[in-house]
Amino acid sequence: MKLWDHTAPEIVAMPDDALGMLVLEDFGGGWNVGNYFNGVSQQHAGAWATPGLPERLADAWAWLEAQGLIGPHPTQGSSPNARRMTKAGAEALKTGLARVKAGRRLDVDLHPRLQWTVRRQFLMGEQELAAFAALREVEIRVRALSNFPDDLVGVSLMAAAFKPKTGPLAEPQAEGGEQEATMALFRGAIGTFKNPSSHRAVDYADPVLAAEVIFLADLLMRLLDRVEARL
């Protein structure tokens, strides 16, 4: 539904992000925020008169600017109200609010070995490749720290590396149950989220899920930092 397909009370009740996406679409190729709001007040005078509606539209606009979906207009510098839809804004209209939210979740400092390539792939819309690449980095690092051959892969590699008591990456000071749990954590992550992508296409229709997989890989990499520090 378009912005003005909704009733005024529905618009007032919307959260900033959902309303912001509708305002972004409604603004489209506009170039001036003042002109946009003046046009809305004239073309939708009945809705505009609803208490709280102008303020909610202003809140949505503020959200769009904060997310970088609306920005300054470089060729209309003489007007302080000159604005345009950014490249990120145009992409957001194509991919939807879920991608915007997922991208915001990744707006943190990932582990250095994931920061550049994984984030870039994700923001380019390659959620499956980004999630796979993140866990592949975990597997590569586990193999390097364990000094195991390249033909030992996946869950078998995790089991050998973190095998309680004898695995080269097992924490010697941890009790048996904790060692088992750590091995299960790495095996489960690789077996559930990395191995399927190695054998078949995995459709991360929900980009938030792909973001969470990347966060899981980030956690595992930080645990491996601790392992490397004691080796």
Properties at a glance:
single chain, 231 residues, mainly alpha, Arc Repressor Mutant, subunit A, 2 domains, two-stranded antiparallel ribbon, 66% helix
Sheet with most strands: strand arrangement: 1-2
Give the overall form.
elongated
> Which stretches of 5+ consecutive residues score pLDDT under 50?
none
Structural class computed from helices and strand pairing = mainly alpha
Please tally the β strands and state the result: 2
What is the CA–CA distance across the termini?
58 Å
Which sequence of SSEs, written as H and E, runs from N to C?
HHHHHEEHHHHHHHH
Number of domains: 2
Percentage of residues in DSSP E strands: under 5%
- The amount of helix comes to 55-70%
InterPro entries: CHP02391 (IPR012654)
Pfam families: Hypoth_Ymh (PF09509)
Domain Conserved hypothetical protein CHP02391: 110-224
